[in-house]
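pasting for ref
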Amino acid sequence: MRAGFPDGAGAIALAVLADFAPGAVGVVPLRVPVPVFPLSGFRLLDDSMRIETPTGVQQLDGPDEVAVHVEAFERLRDAAAIGPRAVALIRRLMDELSG
């Protein structure tokens, strides 16, 4: 993991969520090349999106703007471990960090 809580609480929460709601959590392993590198977090909504930066949130409704981020999301999703693979990866990392 590249970031997280030193006590592992964040990793435990991610593992529980990934196990409970497969597809809700994806983890891009360190050994996998990152296909895109978003400079800020974003949320895709039905016909719009929100970009979250350190200084605020921006709502975008333009179809072309949304399409760029949909493509970025799909590329990240394709590179990520999802569901049981995400749980296994998170647990392995937790073991490495604790041991």
